[in-house]
Amino acid sequence: MPRLGLCAALLMAVLSIDGYCQEAPARKPDGNEGGRPSDAQIAKWRARRPADEVAAKPTPGAATADAPNADSIRGGGRPGGRVMTAKHGSNVLWLSDSPPSRGNGKSRWGGMGGMGGMAMGGGARRGPPVKRLWLRAGIDPQKSGFARDDAKAETEILLVTPQGKPEGEPLSAAEHHKLSFEMPVQGYYRLYLTKRKLKDDTLAVSVAKAEVAYFSHGGDEEERNEAATAPRALDSAPIEIVREKKPDEKMFFRLTSGDEQVFIVLRKGVPVANARVRFVSHAGWVKEAVSDDQGRVSFQIVRDYFPAWNEFEKRFKAAYLVIAETDAVESGRFNDQPYRSVRYQATLSGSYYPSPSDYRSYAWGLGIGFAFLIFCGTAIYLYRRRRVKPFAEVRFDEKQ
Amino acid sequence: MKSSETQASAMAPVDNRAQRAERSPPSRGGDRVTAGIRAAINHVDLNRFRFWFQLVAFVLFVYGGYLAIDLGSRLPFFSCGYNQEGRAGVCYLLPLQHQLSRPWPMLFTAASLSILSGLGIFFLWFIVLNKGWCGFVCPLGTLQDWLTALRRRLGIRYANYTRGQFAQLTKVKYILLALTILIPLGIGGGLWSHDMSPPFCLICPARMILPAFTGDFSQFTIDFSSKTSIVMTTLGMMVTALFIAGGFIKKRFFCFLCPMSALHYLFSKLALFRLKKDGDKCTRCGDCYRVCDLEIKEIADEVNKPNIMTDDCTLCLKCVAACPEDGALKATFAGIPIFESTEAGFIRRMR
Lengths: 400, 351
Fold this sequence. Notes:
The complex is a heterodimer.
Chain A: H1 2-23, H2 39-48, H3 51-56, H4 60-65, H5 70-74, E1 82-83, E2 93-96, E3 118-119, E4 130-137, E5 145-146, E6 154-160, E7 169-170, E8 178-182, E9 187-199, E10 202-214, H6 221-229, E11 240-243, E12 260-267, E13 270-271, E14 276-280, E15 285-290, E16 296-300, E17 318-328, E18 332-334, E19 337-339, E20 341-352, E21 360-361, H7 362-387
Parallel strand pairs in A: 3-10, 10-20
Antiparallel strand pairs in A: 1-15, 2-4, 4-5, 4-8, 6-7, 6-9, 9-10, 11-12, 12-13, 12-16, 14-15, 14-17, 17-20, 18-19
Chain B: H1 2-23, H2 29-42, H3 46-63, H4 93-100, H5 104-107, H6 113-129, H7 132-137, H8 139-154, H9 163-169, H10 172-188, H11 199-203, H12 205-212, E1 222-223, H13 227-249, H14 259-267, E2 273-277, H15 287-291, H16 298-301, H17 318-322, E3 329-333, E4 336-340, H18 343-350
Antiparallel strand pairs in B: 2-3, 3-4
Helix pairs in contact in B: 4-6, 4-10, 8-13, 10-14, 12-13
């Protein structure tokens, strides 16, 4: 009987998660209409999508049947999205700064901890630091496996460095799923891995982008200032997502759960309106929205880290993934084969950390401070009062 | 009646000498200008000058960041690094502790040259004002002076240490300095949690108080993310409470325990700004001791050593201003006297 109750509660929880997802209004970046795609738009996208992906995508009803992982159960009932299976969106390519086996968010010392994008993760002891990235396939930031080499696809890798050409330089890599580059100067390093593949009469163009921030406390200030104003988008990129910096964002910036983050979808440097954008959190929660006229879309970073109190780590590095998709009616030839439409897909990943409000308490801080202040004040008062000698009048009789 | 006559006869020559000092004209024009400037400085109302100097320094180092002022991260006083928005520079203890908490293998590589270069920059800042950074610039020191002024207005009497308490408590700052260096080294070696880093900053009252002046109260919290964090942030709040309570009964309460003061003293003999005493001119009246916020008795008792500055001294120069003997106490910069005790200055300040 208790087991039946537990199953019922679990089922209700999963249903409520999915129900919320269907009804939760997407955030509107500027208060205009159009934050959330209409049913007609979704149906249109599904119709345009390749058949295998449509088959793999679970319907709302089917999503409830997928068993969520342990993290998702802990976060059950919280608003924000739905749990995705690994199958769904397995052809989504993205660049990660951790391989699947290490993507557990454990804090790692030795590198620089946390930027809104990616942080450099150590490197050679001598010489400039080296950043290593992995090309992964799937939309689960934790479990997505390495991307397989596709012989039919044409791959191009471009590295844009702070001191290099603005349009970037090709990066040769023996294995596309494992990439590394040196970071000799401070600034933002951007890696674009573009794959083009023809399927029927549709050309699929996917751009996996990684933005790595490398700054050091004792580094050249001029380099830092240049990096702060350097462009962070590539004019020649077929499509890309740019994480919008906050007005007060410093070099050593950390995105934390609960923060509002804006992303901009650009095609060859031009904002893309009505692109379908998905934000996938570390635990696999997905939120969908549509870009506005400026290509902007805003997401609130969902809190999805709920460990036991004694296992809590404030430096838990969680990964997020942003996927933007849009279709265009363009015709042309690819490898001597004609195509009539192009399906663009861009990905960008980054990291976020638990919010300080999750583990800091004003009530306790001020309580302890005031209590100790009153204790000290009382102790000083009593000490001084104890040392006061009572007035004792002594009279001398001069006659005696 | 007899006593008042005695007082009058004692004051008469003092007044005459003061008038002579003010009236006596220098022989040449250049000398006259120099003597005029020197007299103006020596007659200055030091308390008022210090108040305005400290106020300007406080505004500069607590709000200067809003004006894009950044004097680096090697400053020899508590310009708190936790004051993210308003700071115009960062106290050297913060980067020092971060640098020392690097993994041990890294400490013995070229990367650690930055520790030496940081110490060099700190030294260059330090030699300019010596411990005058504490007496004139440190925002936490200024706050303590303001607390003292408030105490005086409220009519709360201040406290003095006994000589025994003084002798024991003066060692605390060296113990804190040793811990400020050793604990980060232990963290780098994996002996202690990174949650303890930077150890002194976590218990320093400046971390809580200075950001609050820019509206950032986020440091008035207890961090429950780990047991170490709970202990350190609780200690921080308790030290802050102690700072406020202590500031109300004791002048410059925290300066007596400050590890930055101990670090200063390691280099103070090389500094350009110094406090000197001419023991032959000292009458041991004790005025200098009575005005000293740090209760340094040597300032009155010591008549043999010309370099009178001790480890507790903040170079506030109140002793120089309170000294009635010509040239008995003087502040020098690179050997040049810039402010010295004069009878005329003393009398003017007493009016």
